[in-house]
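Let us work through a complete example step by step.
Step 1: write down the sequence.
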Amino acid sequence: MSASSDDPFALEPRGPGFDAMANSNGFVYWWASDLARFLGYDEPKSFFSGALQRAMQTCMQVGADLMDNIVQATRDVDGKPTKDYKLSRFACYLAAMNGDPKKPGVAKAQVYFAQWAEALRMMIADAENVERVALRGDIAEGEKGLTAAAAQAGVTNFGYFHNAGYRGLYNMSISQLRAHKHIPNGRSPLDFFGKRELAANLFRVEETEHRLKTHGVRGQSAAEKAAHDVGSEVRKVMTKDGGIPPERLPIAKDIRDVKKTLKSTHKGFKLVDKTKPALLAAGAPEEPAPEPLDGFVEDPDDSK
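Step 2: predict the structure and record it as tokens.
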């Protein structure tokens, strides 16, 4: 499988394509700014803050070592030191899957990496499932902030408080929602929500925290009302002009299974670059040792 050098994801039988863009200093990598250009991003910064940021979050969520996959580095561009990132094949895949699907380059890259996975005889997660992993992690972090804000507001029964938000959004409690969507007992419904439903809940959680902090909410009842009101407002947006209410949205693949698939994909991509050195560009120059990645710390709590 190969691609043209002008379009590394074209899957045409000529030219070295994507693999010719690779470099190595003991770590097979691709420059993030190069990947951004081929995916169709006009500015690397927008790619760094969007798709690449989500790739970092997904990498941590599935337990893949961030330093094995995404390394911050300084690159010489036209004689000027420029901030960039060295990406493993797995990181390139995650960034493509988290990219803007309206960009033709992103769509081609997603097909390219899906075919790589098929060649490796793996069941690869599609782009939406990859994005779900990052969104689920965002909600887990958001709920920590919401719980802290609720405690500051005087909430003592956090089960009732969080349930109020679900009642506002779904017109039913968490347990009722679990039964309605046939979600296993003891599992968070969030683990089975699709991308749109996760995004709605992330907004609900963040907006509820903001309201508690800025509206002077005090006491259990007032906090529950705020959570319910925000949930109701999100519901109105989702059902406007005949939209499907959230309780009727279909459930998605168990997020735990998605993470297992991504872990297998990570191992497979690493194996490719360990056992097929011919994929590297001929005569790729040696690079300095990787620099530590600034500003990203793995979350050890993967239970949520």
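Step 3: interpret the result. The two ends are 39 Å apart (CA to CA).
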